[in-house]
From TrEMBL:
Positions of the HTH lysR-type domain: 2-59
GO cellular component assignments: cytoplasm
CDD domains in the record: PBP2_MetR
Record keyword Phosphoprotein present: no
Protein name, UniProt field: HTH-type transcriptional regulator MetR
Any GO molecular function: transcription cis-regulatory region binding
Main location: cytoplasm
Family per record: Belongs to the LysR transcriptional regulatory family.
Protein keywords: Activator, Amino-acid biosynthesis, Cytoplasm, DNA-binding, Methionine biosynthesis, Repressor, Transcription, Transcription regulation
UniProt key word Oxidoreductase: no
Gene Ontology BP, a term: methionine biosynthetic process
Localization in the cell: Cytoplasm
Amino acid sequence: MLELRHLRTLIALRDTGSLVEAAERVHLTQSALSHQIKDLESRLGMPLFTRKTRPVSFTRAGERLLTLAEQVLPQLRLAERDLARLAGHEQGRLHMAIECHSCFQWLMPTVDHFRDHWPEVEVDIPSGQNFDLLPGLTREVLDLVITDNPEPLPGVHYAPLFRYEGLLAVSKQHPLATRSWVEPSDLAAETLIVYPVEHSRLDVFTQFLDPANVRPQEIRSAELTVMMMQLVASGRGVCALPNWALTEYLERDYVKALPLGKEGVWSTLYAAVREDNLELPWMEDFIRTARDTSFAVLSGVKPAGTSEDA
């Protein structure tokens, strides 16, 4: 009657607060998820949550199943890891690199959690690479690359982690601070602060400014997010960052953040791995842990896609 997929669905519904986002989290369409829940409620003979509330409000029966899910699912995950280790799949190497200056907020907890459960896997994040990261996968210099710019490379698979929105941070006194969103032309007279990487790797250029043939008045680089925020807060420029990277500064009311265009600019972050490593139990577990951790610690991110699954 009660299946593991039901428990995973209820956890996703609790964490996201809506049927739409829960469906994305468990890779179902909204109609398939609704059908699954109605079927379970029919079997149990009672509702599990109150409809048309945001966030979702669970009934006592729903709360009881959530408690069960919190007990069972972590134990199942632990058992899967133990079985993989008993099968002799624990040895390995995970050398990774990051094409993302602001990823450490969720990546470091992911790595710490992974090391606790796979101590025999050699994990390293080498610094100062003087080569293109993604081709480093094909040469087996690296085993995983975190990127939002997938390139078609033979033998490389891109596992989507999550979607995020790019936002423009401005000072609270900036004339744009009262706007609902910004247009590319609004940045023509601005100093745009960016990380010291090629502009072709920055969404604010590739998805926002370049299509409109707009160039900022000045471009300034900064190594650290906190440096960017200091410059923005003092009125010395504006910067575009992932929504999660701005959460701390928005909560402290240091800056204001605006969508890039009325519809916003959304991107997907991927874990790039060699196809021959995809089925390694510890690689599968790292990617799953990365997804779970990102949703647990980041604000404003969304699942990276859906698929039909009844």
